[in-house]
Amino acid sequence: MNARVAAASAAFSRPPRSVEWPRASPATAGDNHVLVSEIFGQNVFTLKTLESVLPKPVFAHFVNQVKGLAPIDKPTADAVAHAARVWAMARGATHFSHWFQPQNGTTAEKHDSFLTLKTSVNNGLEEARAIDALSGSQLLQSEPDASSFPSGGVRSTFEARGYTIWDTSSPMFVRAGPHGTATLFIPSVYISFNGEALDEKTTLLRSCDALSVAAVRLLRIMGDADVARVRTTLGTEQEFFLVDRGTYRLRPDLKITGRTVMGAAPPKHQQLEDHYFGKMPSRVIACMSECELELYKLGVPIKTRHNEVAPNQFEVAPIFEDASVAVDHNLLLMATLHEVAHRHGLKVLFHEKPFKGINGSGKHCNWSMATDSGDNLLDPTANPEKNPRFLLFLVAVLDAVNRHGALLRATIASASNEHRLGAHEAPPGIVSVFLGDHLAEVLDAVAEGRPVKSLVAPSHQAVRLGGTVLDLKVASLPTIARDLTDRNRTSPFAFTGNKFEFRAVGSSQSPSFPTAVLNAAVAESLTAIADTLEARKGGAATASTSDVMDVVQELIKTTKRIRFEGNNYSQEWAAEAARRGLPNIKSSPVAFKKLLEPEHMNVLVKQGIMSEAEVKARYHILVDKYVKDQMIEANTVKDMVRTRVLPGVFSFSKGLAESVAAHKTAGIDVDSLAEKRTLERVAGMTTKLFDAADELEREIAAVEALADEEAAAEMAGRVLTVAIGHVREAADALEAVVGDSHWPFPKYADLLF
């Protein structure tokens, strides 16, 4: 209890951290704050910077390499490496690092100094001289140990060689380090000695290329010959919790598992919905402002910040970027939030469900496709029913989800996300698509060959381009534009104006694999559509509008089963989805197996996005992590009960017993004493907790005894979750009765308020 009091006191007495926003030079602009646009990307080695220091032919060759038109040669690599080193050292860099994304949900880095020794001969004697250098070969690749990263069996633990290779499509950047130094980070892919992908980025880059090839081919069949590349765009809304670091360190479960495995609900949590979009606490806004300052310098385009529904829950969202860069930036965001929160005495929690009984966190991935000239292929324009290109790309996405919804479900499956999905705060395990009333009517009208019905009923609403205008009937207020469709926050995959929002992705996971699989599925559908149109157009240069609309009509009909405009949380939808033949995958081990089903594996293998070995490796990595996560949680619960909760309860019971004994010695009838009644109540509850802990230990031993990883995953998900729930139920009941001074952990009220 003393530690809890000290932590609470420290939280209130801690002086606020002050970070000055950069100011303009007094000689040029007075003492004004620097604009965000002026500091944005200042720690990024941009193409513009590179162009300013490289000879034009060398820069042109590098640009062609980035576009995939030519391989990079050693002179170009050496020139870029030299320029990057000089630029980075001017910003305090002493080291460089290939920054990559192993399949463990985090990023990895190995720092190498610019320092090297150059030997020269002086008076006939060799002499080593220290110089700073970065060669082209050092820039292009490095060799971190591959034995300790997840490989899913493609590498043995005694086979250590792996390679990081510079990803030229994502810019290098500098991050500050200790003592005024910095490190040059080189975004990289990570592959094994035999060339298998050991990371997240390689698969994502392959999928972006596959989608681009398929989309460009389809556009050319439709008569658009000017598009050379189609970009996958992504914007990731990141939800998270911020809690005081002093109380956090007193919670073993938060430190080890990222969530509270026990804890009774406080009288007030999110019932009043007063936290949502409310005023941010000063300590939080200071933390987020400093985080944004660092992210702006790193070229991360953070646009939005606000309170989320649950107390101490927040969200930030960026401007859309190319998918690969957007993933890099999301992982940078998570790392920066972690570091900056620490400076403010806070701890950021990315777990999907850190607190029972209140909303968890997701990572909403807003995905679209755009041409190299910036034309969004999912923009419905004012009259979507008269826009064949939009309709064709829209139904291609619907077809992809219809074919591979179960595979998309596998990409967001994890032990942590299981606590959130389907919990009336996040989409269920049924993958469906929300389009909105207007767009749904457009597709139905196209499929039935009839005019689109007007959805504007009230007489005071005037039709306007792209939507409607709402007259608020207040003279001082302007009319406002209303979107074509409402939003559906219960849908796992919702169309939101000119993009799809994949809402089921977990807050703690990298958005890379879900995006890669979505790209792959859409690329397959685009290819199938292109094949159909190619066959139909015969010898014609391009497909006719009637042929395009025929394909659109067919796909509208075949994909209608995945379209759902209602409440995805409802039991009625679960029953309706079953009638439609849509799988309701509630268990992660069941979801993981979808990766191995031929129809889903082939969408990755046939397009060269993953090899069969890489798919199987991914499956084994996911299963292995799932079992380990479940076992870590189970053992954490067991230890907390045995070494913290029960001793605290015994101490409380001892005090009650001594009080009862003292009253009895004084000759007082103790049968009606509150102490005795409480003691009897606590004794029964303690026995229940003790028995539940014993049950949990038996289940832990049973899972540990299984050599087969699939059987272990199935059993862990089935029995450990139940056993942990029994322990939690008993512990939470005791928390509501045992004296506060005897409870060993900060309670929800301490953590959330």
TrEMBL record:
Signal peptide: none
Coiled coil: none
UniProt-listed SUPFAM superfamilies: Glutamine synthetase/guanido kinase
Ranges for domain GS beta-grasp: 94-195
Residue intervals of the GS catalytic domain: 200-645
The family this protein is said to belong to: Belongs to the glutamine synthetase family.
Family annotation (PANTHER family): GLUTAMINE SYNTHETASE, TYPE-3 GLUTAMINE SYNTHETASE
Protein's UniProt name: Glutamine synthetase
Lineage: Eukaryota, Fungi, Fungi incertae sedis, Chytridiomycota, Chytridiomycota incertae sedis
